[in-house]
Amino acid sequence: MAFRFRRVHRLLKTDEFSSVFRLRGARSNTFFQVYAAPNTLGYARLGLVVGKKVAKQAVRRNYIKRTVREWFRVNQPDLPACDFVVRARLAFGHTDRNDAVTALSALFAKLARCRASSSS
């Protein structure tokens, strides 16, 4: 039950995305750029941006989104109460999936360290 990805754990509205982008707390690598903003809800929420410039075919964009959602679903209990927006920078397929997931984990670890040091 704890590993579900419900509607309340998603950023859905434009205003929610804009508030995260406005704070400009971001980290990036070759695969992703991750923005973060603290929230008062007590749990992490995720928003995804995968543009057509990154992957022309909808199938590839959807694969990227499914991969990120699955990583978030599994790691959500360990994440701080923040709103995260993940923007894809490079398309990847089945062969590069492990590299992309490792890169995503590293970005979230960096953001968690920054949040911990700024709240101290």
Automatic annotation (TrEMBL):
The keyword Iron does not apply. Consists of a catalytic RNA component (M1 or rnpB) and a protein subunit. Belongs to the RnpA family. Pfam families: Ribonuclease_P (PF00825). RNaseP catalyzes the removal of the 5'-leader sequence from pre-tRNA to produce the mature 5'-terminus. It can also cleave other RNA substrates such as 4.5S RNA. The protein component plays an auxiliary but essential role in vivo by binding to the 5'-leader sequence and broadening the substrate specificity of the ribozyme. It catalyses: Endonucleolytic cleavage of RNA, removing 5'-extranucleotides from tRNA precursor. The keyword Nucleotide-binding does not apply. InterPro entries: Ribosomal_Su5_D2-typ_SF, Ribsml_uS5_D2-typ_fold_subgr, RNase_P, RNase_P_CS. One of its GO terms (molecular function) is ribonuclease P activity. The lineage of its organism: Bacteria, Pseudomonadati, Pseudomonadota, Betaproteobacteria, Neisseriales. HAMAP family: RNase_P. It is an enzyme of class 3 (hydrolase). It comes from Crenobacter cavernae. This is Ribonuclease P protein component. Its EC number is 3.1.26.5. It comes from the Bacteria.
